[in-house]
Amino acid sequence: MKGKNSSIIKTYIVATVLVLLGLVAFAVFSLISNKTDNKDDFGLNVSKAVSEFKIDYPKLEELAKNHPKGEMFLGRIRDNESKLNDGVSENDQETYELIGFDMYQLGDNEGTILAYRASLSILLNNVVALSNLANAYKAVGDYENAERAYLKAIKASPGEVTTY
Fold first, then answer.
1. N or C: which end of the chain has fewer CB atoms below 10 A?
2. What is the sign, positive or negative, of the torsion defined by CA atoms of 91, 95, 96, 101?
């Protein structure tokens, strides 16, 4: 009987150790997942995307001189920037997209990338922002990130023909 009890105790100890190891593994995995969930497919820490966003007005003013509607785009960028500072965060995601679109029209692809990344930090699977981000990456020759953005857009909306 004594051998049977010690065998049962050993089984409980082994089972308890396995459960504890499983809990530790789950905790470690959760911590790692939370850190990587903070990044999008481009290695960007999405919590920093908004703070990294900037508008290079001297560059845009130069680009606007060479575009027939340059002043209109520049004016819309200024108007939309004021919306980012109005204290109403509900419109920020769309505002970043609008600024990104106008920057793209002027030829500021680097600014466009920053704007769409900021937009995606608010709404990560936005197909329009992903497609436009991909176009901007393609324009600067960053084909790896362009492909990632296109593939993410396709995954977010598989039937969207324009993404293909």
1. N
2. positive
The phi, psi pair for 40, rounded to 5°, reads -90, -170
Q: Specify the pLDDT at position 107.
A: 96
Residue-wise pLDDT for 17-28, tens only, equals: 666 666 666 655
Instruction: Return the closest-CA partner of residue 60 out of 99, 86, 118.
Output: 99
| String of DSSP letters for 74-128 | HHHHHHHHHHHTSS-GGGHHHHHHHHHHHHHHHT-HHHHHHHHHHHHHHSTT-HH
- Facing residues of 92 across strands? none
Report the percent of the chain where pLDDT is more than 70: 75
- CA dist list (Å): 137 to 5, 23, 47, 117: 67, 42, 21, 11
CA–CA dist 81, 98 (Å, integer): 10
Give CA 125 to chain center in angstroms.
Answer: 8
Buried b (16+ CB within 10 A) or exposed e, 8-29: eeeeeeeeeeeeeeeeeeeeee
For 123, phi and psi rounded to 5 degrees? -135, 95
